[in-house]
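FYI - complex with adenosine monophosphate, inputs then prediction.
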Amino acid sequence: VTRAYVGLGSNLGDRERFIRTAIEHMNRIPESSVIRVSSLYDSEPAGDSTQPRYLNAVAVLETELSPERVLWNLLLIEKRLGRERVKRWGPRQIDLDLLFFGDRVIEEPDLTVPHPEVEHRAFVLVPMVELDPTFVHPRLGVTVGHLLRERKLLSAVRWKGRFWY
Ligand code: AMP
């Protein structure tokens, strides 16, 4: 089995409910289960700062599936939850990103793992550090704790409480 780290984000409607529902769907992915979820964090939208603020979390999915199959299931959940792909960086009910897949490094046309934005995003690094500060980013060869300290991103997100999961 592999531990996949999945980033969740929502900035439309009942954001917490979209994240909770997405996690319930993730737990129903075949040969997989959600074993941990970080706290919720409120963050500035990346890219277009005129859109509403995001609620973010990171979930740990233990899976026997391939990374391609996991991504396929995540995209299916996005569709089911009614994500309308209006704008690339625009608002969305739910956004699911495959951040890490164990220590695998994958460069495929439709799948880049680790997710290429991980090291720039406080809303990914802060919940990752909460889950496991010693987790090593397999492309950069340093821990997520190191990345967060080095980039001084800690103040860029607001803690919004522990998750019920
Ligand atoms: P986005 O608009 O950011 O949700 O982009 C989703 C698209 O990015 C999907 O169609 C994926 O094929 C592609 N993609 C590549 N690598 C990843 C990844 N690690 N996690 C999620 N989507 C990815």
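The CA atoms of residues 126 and 135 lie 12 Å apart. Residues 71, 88, 95, 97-98, 110-113, 115 surround adenosine monophosphate (CB under 6 Å).
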